[in-house]
Amino acid sequence: MKILLFKIGALGDVLMTTPLIKELKKSHTESQIDYLVGNNASKLINNNPYLSNVLIFDENIFFKKKLFGYLKLINNIRKKKYDYIFVLDKHWIFNLTAMLFNIKKRIGFNRLGKEGIFLTDKVYYGPVKHEITYYLELASLLNTEKSDANIKIDIVIPTEIEKKILKFLSDKNIKNYTVLINSGGNNVGESGGIRKMPEKLFKDILDNLSKKTDVLFVGGPEEREYYEKFSGKNIYNFAGATSIIESAVLLKYAKKIITTDCGLMHLASAVNENIISIFGPTNPKRKAPLSKKCISVWKDMKNYDENYELFGKMPEKREFFNEITIEDIV
What is the span of the domain harbouring residue 138? Predict the structure, then answer.
């Protein structure tokens, strides 16, 4: 049996699908399980032991409506003759694409009961519950044996990369450090940084931490300039200086991680349990790390607009985190 998982991104969303991969492989050990994923998020699952192949495509085929690339993708997948496809995005265009792949059994989400028309088997998507729970519900539609699913996010860190980063930390005498992350809302196809905490709150947290411990920033190249504004004693800016897998090592060995809702929060939850996650426009019941040791801080319940999480529609109110104080976090 040939199974294809299909998701465009983003980093955190793809990481939250890894328990589904593991669950499918546990019940269908002899099956070929491939993952069709956008280029930006592919590096997180390249070494996943439960996957046979990772098939990478340019996500701009969808975001920038590149018709030639879209038709080429459809043709390439048709040739592979999959038996089943799991469509892990919620928009109807991905369900339609799965049908155009000419895969007979199409499993995915029917968002608010309106977007599952091109699927053969579907899970209703809407009520607030964790994204990992939603993904695992899809597995039951493939005659997957019911069991206590392992909800832990998976990521493989090559030994040589781990050793390299640990040597670097040792050489710099960086130890017992905290990772501080202020990101969110800057995925491919999304911009605005709506999930970032206000600069004053971020600086207050940083000032408090840096008096007691080394503080590391991690992130992408586009965030390096932002973090440069907060340079100081015991503060290290690794944004843009490490790959996503190297960042995973920094997160793994952190004494504590304080982060907003972003891809790195989910990466952190794969390698560390000492996480304080800070939420604004998003609901921690959908996205927060699931370890019992993790703490979520959220004080924007009255401002919550589910259309942001359901459809990516920007809330009319753009100011969040204002009721959170430093005492809630450190």
Answer: 2-142
Distance from C-alpha of 230 to C-alpha of 210, rounded to nearest angstrom: 11
The token duo for 54 is 């990772």
Query: Which one, of 281, 285, 278, 273, lies nearest residue 259 by Cα?
Result: 278
**Would 94 be classed as within a structural domain?**
yes
Among 97, 113, 142, where does a domain finish?
142
CA dist., res. 107 & res. 98, Å (int): 9
Residue 169 tokens read as 């930390």
Same domain, 130 and 244: no
E strand or H helix at 109: strand 105-111
Q: Is 96 exposed, middle or buried (0-12, 13-18, 19+ CB in 10 A)?
A: middle
Does some domain include residue 53?
Answer: yes
> Do 204 and 278 belong to one domain?
yes
DSSP, residue by residue, 188-251: TT--S-TTSPPHHHHHHHHHHHHTTS-EEE---GGGHHHHHTT--TTEEE-TTTS-HHHHHHHH
In this structure, the strands spanning 121-125 and 105-111 are parallel
The continuous run of DSSP H or E covering 67 comes out as helix 67-78
Q: Are the beta carbons of 268 and 184 closer than 8 angstroms?
A: no
Three-state SS annotation for 137-174:
HHHHHHCCCCCCCCCCCCCCCCHHHHHHHHHHHHHCCC
Decide if pLDDT at 191 tops 70: no
pLDDT for the residue numbered 316: 79
Do 238 and 192 lie in a common domain? yes
At 76, which CATH number? 3.40.50.2000
Residue-wise pLDDT for 245-300, tens only, equals: 999 999 999 999 999 999 999 999 999 999 999 999 999 999 999 999 999 999 99
Predicted model pTM = 0.94
Instruction: Return all residues near 314 (Cβ < 8 A) that are at least 6 apart.
Output: 192, 194, 308
The dihedrals phi and psi of 226, each to the nearest 5 degrees, come to -60, -50
